[in-house]
Amino acid sequence: MTMSKSGSAKDAKLEWWQLSMIGIGCIIGTGFFLGSALAITITGPSAIIVFALAAAGTYFVFDALAKMSAKDPQKGSFRSYAKKAYGHWAGFSSGWVYWSSELLIMGSQLTALSLFSRFWFPDTPLWVFATGFAVLGLAVVLTGTRGFEKMENIFAIIKVAAIFMFLIIATLAVFGVFNGAGHEVNLARTFDNFLPGGYMGLWTALIFAFYAFGGIEIMGIMAPRLKNKKDSPKAGKVMLLLLASIYLLAISLTVILVPVNDFSTKESPFVTTLDHYKLPFVPHLFNGAMIVAGFSTMCASLFAVTSMIVTLAKDGDAPEILAKKGKLKVPHFALGLTILGLITSIILALAMPDRIYEYLTTAAGLMLIYNWLFLLFSYKKVIKLTSFDQIKRYGGIILILAAVSGTLFEKTSRPGFFISLLFLGVIGLILFLKNAVDKRKKKKEKEREIKVPRPRYQ
């Protein structure tokens, strides 16, 4: 953080409502603007139920995080609680799982941004846009923390304004102020085709709804900056209530106004809806706002992966060189690793242009909720739970396991599941090798102590 005359920026204290607004600003992004299309195409209008279930599951996870943060604020948040509950291996695993999830989220966002840009340039390859957005994102990261925070505040205003613009226009369309191109409001049609994929559709779409709520970790990370640490649960409840209300209302209006068959995973359902009403410039304006929103969350992911790798390096869970600072405002070796991740995402966009968004979104969502699951297991170890706390904890575990298992029964999600397993396997292998090296070092140190001759006394 850069210093000001009054002290460091990180020492600034937040009111609970400010933390709520920060949470909303950080969470709303491509996971909702484009990821919701995946849920709608799989399960139709019943995507409303899927998002309601994901909201409940997210609340159960946040409730656990907030109570641990209120009792024992930790800079490392969920990672610190995992380490406290189960030891060093858990902190190592949690940190690297989070880093991996943010890396995959970054790739998913790059792809989504490229798909949004194709609204204007349909014949341009995805990798061209992905490269451009990656370079711009790195430029934002290089401005340092202060520049990033200023830009994020502007981005947050734009993305929230875009959603409210959609809600107002869609509500007016429902009441007949605007006439669609042959797609009048038809509630009977919506309810008759409410569950086109059956209960299996609900199950398999759950992962994409959870992905749209990804980002609640920021609430735990920033909880130590609250003026009153006990306000953490209240900040999260308000944030989730507002977020769930916005999501459910937007999706409800979307499926009422447009037939399910008209939606595509290649375009935001909200742009599809607005485009049906032939309003001059409005779909273009909304698409531009979504690009800003997606770019905002991509920059946040860039910061997250870079910051997490530095934290891991300082704690001895990654090579020390990754925390080494240079002339740049961010550690250059950590930034180099982030750039490598970006290049990988661009290569994937070039190699698998048809299904890459579904694959990356599924894998990113899974890696994200693996950490949520870890947090719920840590919860019981860190603080004493009431009976109601236990019920909520089990509710969260059941919903997360349902989301994970559902990916096995949907062909567009299944590859993402195996990608997430690959990441877990690599993290497990690194942990195994690290423990083996540490044991050898300790063994050699003991052998040296034994070999050193004791001094003779006259």
Low-confidence regions: 1-11
Helix fraction? over 70%
Order of helices and strands: EEHHHHHHHHHHHHHHHHHH
User: Using DSSP, what is the number of strands?
Assistant: 2
Q: Judging from the principal axes of the Cα atoms, what is the shape? A: globular
Largest sheet: 2 strands, antiparallel
Question: What is the mean pLDDT?
Answer: 80
| Order of adjacent strands in the largest pleated sheet | 1-2
Q: Beta-strand percentage?
A: under 5%
The CA-CA distance between the termini, in Å, is 59 Å
Count of DSSP-assigned helices: 18
Judged by helices, strands and strand pairing, the structural class is mainly alpha
Radius of gyration (Å)? 23 Å
Concise account of the structure shown:
The chain is 73% helix and 1% strand.
Verbal overview:
The chain has helices at residues 16-27, 30-33, 35-43, 47-71, 78-86, 88-117, 126-141, 144-174, 187-192, 198-212, 217-222, 232-257, 269-275, 282-314, 332-351, 356-382, 387-406, 414-451, and strands at residues 3-4, 7-8. Strand 1 and strand 2 (7-8) form a beta hairpin. It has a two-stranded antiparallel ribbon. By secondary structure, it is mainly α. Helix 5 (78-86) runs antiparallel to helix 6.
Furnish the topology, listing elements before pairings:
Blueprint: E1 3-4, E2 7-8, H1 16-27, H2 30-33, H3 35-43, H4 47-71, H5 78-86, H6 88-117, H7 126-141, H8 144-174, H9 187-192, H10 198-212, H11 217-222, H12 232-257, H13 269-275, H14 282-314, H15 332-351, H16 356-382, H17 387-406, H18 414-451
Antiparallel strand pairs: 1-2
Helix pairs in contact: 1-8, 1-12, 3-10, 4-10, 4-12, 4-16, 4-17, 5-6, 5-16, 6-7, 6-14, 6-15, 6-16, 6-18, 7-14, 7-15, 8-12, 8-14, 10-16, 10-17, 13-14, 14-15, 16-17, 16-18
